[in-house]
């Protein structure tokens, strides 16, 4: 990782605009692939690097997206390596997607980003040596692109690495793993918008803060669109608890309608490595069975729910 960061810092400005130079490969593939290998959870994390679309950016970046939070630099929040425009150093920052905020808040975008950054930072239990100080990406007077200043405002926590004093690979890897822990601290604690009153009623059953957060994390997993779609494509659209085929019962309006249920017990959801195999770690349930599944003492026990259904058949 250190070597790739150093090559980007040393070569980005001298070969700026040269799409054939290897610095482009370092940003787009080499460094992202190294990060993926370090994280070792390719089903959960997406790593992307960019030096701009069309024209080269003043501030290239390589970001890590937890697919339970976001898959794009435009929305949500995510860890990212942000390079200063003069290549004097690089930040490892937990930052925010600025595009959607720009679209939603036409004015005062920076103020909104700073406010949200402070709120996120207040939810962090352990900073692991990172800090919430303002980052400085714009050092070149010729940089007139607005994005660097928005990244500066969107910083939640960060560490700065000077180009003439990059730490060892071991330290960089440790920092990467620690910022992923911080990432987890925030999204486990982050309020998830729940879509109906039944969800709110379910929340009332979790009296203590820790279990409520685990329940919300469980909901986040199940509501991830891409993951849910993959589960349904693999497992089909017949409820694995009551065997109902909603298309047979309701016709066209029931076609391809089913809900994905994550089988890991809520008690095990600590924000650490979560199994997300669409074939093994999920099942598909109709809405009623899904609700009942969550009411079981062990909401991963599909056979128990099937036993209850069989017991109460008339």
Description:
This protein has two domains: 2-189, 2-Layer Sandwich (Metal Transport, Frataxin, Chain A), CATH 3.30.920; 197-311, no CATH class. A five-stranded antiparallel beta sheet has the order 1-2-3-4-5. The protein has helices spanning 2-11, 22-39, 99-104, 109-122, 147-154, 169-189, 197-204, 209-222, 225-235, 246-250, 287-295, 302-311, and strands at 45-50, 61-66, 77-83, 89-96, 157-162, 259-262, 282-285. The longest helix is centred in the middle third of the chain and has 21 residues, at 169-189. α1 runs antiparallel to α2 and α4 (109-122) packs parallel to α5. The termini are far apart. 43% of the residues lie in helices and 13% in strands. Mean pLDDT is 86; it is low at 191-212. It is of the alpha+beta class and 314 residues long. It is built from twelve helices and seven strands. β3 and β4 form a beta hairpin.
Task: Based on the model shown, name its key terms.
314 residues, alpha+beta, Metal Transport, Frataxin, Chain A, 2 domains, two-stranded antiparallel ribbon, 12 helices, 7 strands, 43% helix, endonuclease, nuclease, endonuclease activity, McrB_DNA-bd, hydrolase
């Amino acid at each position: 990782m250190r070597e790739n960061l150093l090559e980007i810092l040393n070569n980005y400005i001298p070969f700026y605009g040269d799409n054939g130079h290897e610095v482009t490969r370092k940003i787009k593939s080499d460094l992202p692939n190294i990060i993926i290998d370090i994280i070792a959870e390719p089903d959960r994390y997406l790593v992307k690097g960019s030096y701009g679309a069309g024209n080269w950016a003043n501030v290239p970046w390589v970001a890590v997206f937890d697919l339970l939070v976001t898959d794009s630099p435009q929305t949500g929040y995510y860890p990212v390596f942000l390079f200063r425009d003069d290549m004097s150093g690089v930040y490892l920052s937990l930052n925010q997607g600025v595009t959607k905020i720009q679209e939603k808040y036409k004015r005062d975008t920076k103020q909104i980003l700073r406010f949200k950054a402070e709120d996120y930072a207040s939810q962090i239990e352990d900073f692991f040596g990172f800090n919430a100080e303002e980052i400085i990406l714009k050092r070149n007077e010729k940089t007139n692109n607005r994005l660097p200043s928005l990244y500066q405002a969107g910083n939640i926590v960060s560490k700065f690495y000077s180009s003439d004093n990059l730490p060892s690979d071991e330290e960089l890897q440790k920092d990467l793993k620690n910022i992923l822990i911080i990432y987890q601290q925030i999204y486990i604690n982050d309020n998830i918008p729940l879509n109906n009153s039944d969800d709110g009623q379910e929340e009332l059953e979790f009296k203590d803060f820790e279990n409520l957060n685990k329940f919300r994390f469980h909901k986040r997993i199940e509501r991830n669109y891409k993951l849910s779609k993959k589960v349904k494509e693999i497992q089909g659209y017949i409820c694995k608890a009551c065997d109902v085929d909603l298309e047979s019962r309701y016709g066209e309006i029931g076609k391809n309608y089913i809900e994905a249920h994550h089988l890991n017990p809520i008690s095990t959801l600590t924000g650490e490595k979560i199994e997300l195999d669409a074939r093994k770690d999920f099942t598909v349930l109709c809405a009623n069975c899904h609700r009942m599944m969550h009411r079981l003492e062990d909401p991963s026990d599909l056979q128990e729910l099937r036993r209850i259904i069989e017991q109460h058949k008339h």
